[in-house]
Prior knowledge:
Elements: H1 3-8, E1 13-15, H2 17-25, E2 31-36, H3 44-58, E3 62-67, H4 69-74, H5 80-97, E4 104-108, H6 116-128, H7 131-142, H8 149-164, E5 169-173, H9 177-186, E6 197-200, H10 227-235, H11 257-266, E7 273-275, E8 285-287, H12 290-299, H13 304-330
Parallel strand pairs: 2-3, 2-5, 3-4, 5-6
Antiparallel strand pairs: 1-6, 7-8
The structure holds 3-iodo-tyrosine (IYR).
3-iodo-tyrosine (IYR) binds at residues 34-37, 66, 68, 71, 141, 158, 161, 170, 172, 176.
Amino acid sequence: xxxxxxxxxxxxxxxxxxxxxxxxxxxxxxxxxxxxxxxxxxxxxxxxxxxxxxxxxxxxxxxxxxxxxxxxxxxxxxxxxxxxxxxxxxxxxxxxxxxxxxxxxxxxxxxxxxxxxxxxxxxxxxxxxxxxxxxxxxxxxxxxxxxxxxxxxxxxxxxxxxxxxxxxxxxxxxxxxxxxxxxxxxxxxxxxxxxxxxxxxxxxxxxxxxxxxxxxxxxxxxxxxxxxxxxxxxxxxxxxxxxxxxxxxxxxxxxxxxxxxxxxxxxxxxxxxxxxxxxxxxxxxxxxxxxxxxxxxxxxxxxxxxxxxxxxxxxxxxxxxxxxxxxxxxx
Length: 331
Ligand code: IYR
């Protein structure tokens, strides 16, 4: 796979394609980042962007993981000390997941975001941005609580991070796109360069196929889940034999979350996927790509129950090293 393919595969959006193409001409040593508000246990949402970071490392890029402690503080996730303790566990799980230690730099936001120069730039950005604009940038990240001033400062700091970490590329879930658009608009006003961004899709809730998979509501899978938990969650997942399920009775759009997990989590990390079946049910099925598996589910060749059993096995293998790490940290 060439660098352009590695950077863009499974991306929902690339801003802009031309800028990313330029980057792929000589990706070796270029710096990309994702920022995470620290949380003690990684879940499939974190791992989706981590998959992209692994792709970037394979293309020769250096990866910066911003442990966004000050951002989590602004977003009322606890005291800075509490947030930093969970960040250390997060770091260990990322490495266990398969990020290349040599090409991964972990940076705490608070190590540079309180510096004088950064703070001055932040105040300049505050002058250059309307409250309405900052609030819109945060809408997807913050949820529906009351907007505080901290929520408006948050996207401006995220904008400055791109400059202060000396990056060539920003990566994030699609929920980060409005912040990245704000950054593209505002960085030049401070005479800083615009950087391209790559956005990964937001996956649907596992049980309903609706909305977005989240750690606070609905069902996701985390590094803390046991093999039995993973099996149980995947077995009760929504999995009609189609890629395009009908909306539910209230008109809510639905996805097939089992197929999404194969596409975005399993195939990028495994050379092939084997569905084990007894001879009397047709014997094993082997897939090297997502498309033929999805086609077999649609045609009825692959039964949803077999797809789920297989998905649970592969997801379990992906989270097992992180689960082990968490256990070690606890002992
Ligand atoms: N907004 C992110 C956290 C975050 C990301 C980046 I990229 C930053 O520079 C700072 C914070 C989230 O929603 O988790």
